[in-house]
From TrEMBL:
InterPro entries: LRR-SigEffector_domain, LRR_dom_sf, LRR_R13L4/SHOC2-like. Keywords: Repeat. Residues 110-233 form the Disease resistance R13L4/SHOC-2-like LRR domain. It comes from the Eukaryota. This is Disease resistance R13L4/SHOC-2-like LRR domain-containing protein. The keyword Metal-binding does not apply.
Length: 381
């Protein structure tokens, strides 16, 4: 290898004795990823601060179980920062250091995970103006997010998962005008969402999944004009979806998988003219589909499997009314639904198409239990 060609490496610094070696590494290698783990008495990055390559090549910094001095010497080329298993003091010190003018002008991605004693994030988070992606996961005692979250004008992706003490999201959420993807999963204490959710003009994907305390969604949901995919799976206490839902003219996929408390859908559901995929699997409280259901002419995928209380299709509607339908699942449904699926299946065979993914209707005892509103194990019936 030519002497002027430096290998591209990831550098792991373990404890204080690794710092001098780390400084030497910058002189002989292109270090793109620095990972700090363990206890440090002084800032471990200080020794590399004078190396010009430190500010040109380091794009990723990972702090994993980092226990040391505040980091005041951050590479100006830093694009991604991952903080895991750190105590609140280290998290706060690092975020404050990042918020200093000129500290990290290229930072676009920040992830915090498994900081299990972190109860709050500092307001300094809102000063990371170049941030485009923020991920918060396994922060078990985090109860709220700072209102300064809304100051992240460049943010396009926000992912929050397994923050089991998180009760709500800040009202300033609606100020994230560039946000295209919002995913909030497995936050079991989350009981409500701010009305400002509807003020996100760029949002195309929204996932609110596995929230046992969430009983309702704001009516402003229907104002998300750009929304294309909406997933509400395993929101087990969700008793209704907003009547404004049919205003989502761009929506192509709606997932209500395992919304066990949901008895009905909005009457104007048929106004979702772009809807291609509707998944209602295991909506065990669902008894009827709205009369407008037959207007969903763009449907290609429909999953009604294990909706054991669904008595049938709306009057005058059949599955053959959906010209684009290619995948139909009705396993575990009552006989009228299965019979309608069989008719659709036969029609497809006559046209040379493939068959539906249908199963036999419920056994008599299971069908009677479903009609009576009694939950039972269908497979054992």
């Amino acid at each position: 290898m030519h002497r002027d060609v430096k290998p591209v490496v990831a550098l792991l610094v373990l404890g204080p004795h690794g710092s001098p070696t780390a400084a030497a590494a910058f002189a002989s290698k292109h270090v793109v990823h620095v990972k700090l783990r363990g206890r440090f008495k002084v800032d471990p990055l200080r020794v590399a601060w004078q190396e010009s390559s430190f500010h040109k090549t380091v794009c990723v910094l990972t702090l994993e179980a980092y226990d040391g001095a505040a980091l005041a010497h951050l590479p100006r080329s830093l694009q991604q920062l991952h903080i895991g298993c750190c105590d609140p003091v280290r998290v706060h010190h690092t975020l404050h250091a990042l918020s200093e003018p000129g500290a990290a002008p290229a930072l676009t991605s920040l992830s915090l995970h498994s900081c299990k004693t972190l109860r709050a994030l500092p307001d300094a988070l809102g000063q990371l103006m170049t941030l485009r992606a923020l991920s918060l996961s396994w922060l078990w005692v985090l109860t709220a997010l700072p209102e300064t979250l809304g100051d992240l004008a460049a943010l396009t992706h926000l992912d929050i998962s397994h923050c089991r003490a998180l009760v709500t999201l800040p009202q300033s959420l609606g100020a994230l005008r560039a946000l295209t993807s919002l995913s909030v999963r497995t936050c079991h204490a989350l009981a409500a969402l701010p009305d400002s959710l509807g003020a996100l003009p760029s949002l195309t994907a929204l996932a609110l999944e596995e929230h046992g305390a969430l009983t309702r969604l704001p009516e402003t949901l229907g104002q998300l004009a750009a929304l294309r995919t909406l997933s509400l799976s395993y929101c087990c206490a969700l008793a209704r979806v907003p009547e404004s839902l049919p205003q989502l003219g761009s929506l192509t996929a709606l997932n209500l998988f395992c919304c066990w408390a949901l008895p009905c859908l909005p009457a104007a559901l048929g106004r979702l003219r772009a809807l291609a995929a509707l998944r209602l699997r295991r909506c065990t409280a669902l008894r009827a589909l709205p009369a407008s259901f037959g207007q969903l002419r763009a449907l290609t995928t429909l999953d009604l499997s294990e909706c054991g209380r669904l008595a049938g299709l709306p009057r005058g509607v059949s599955f053959t009314d959906f010209p684009a339908l290619r995948q139909l699942e009705v396993a575990g449904c009552q006989q009228p639904v299965s019979a309608a699926a069989d008719a659709w299946n036969r029609a497809r065979w006559r046209r040379g198409g493939s068959s539906a993914q249908c199963a036999a209707p419920l056994p008599p005892r299971a069908a009677a239990a479903a009609a009576a509103g009694v939950d039972m194990d269908v497979a054992a019936a």
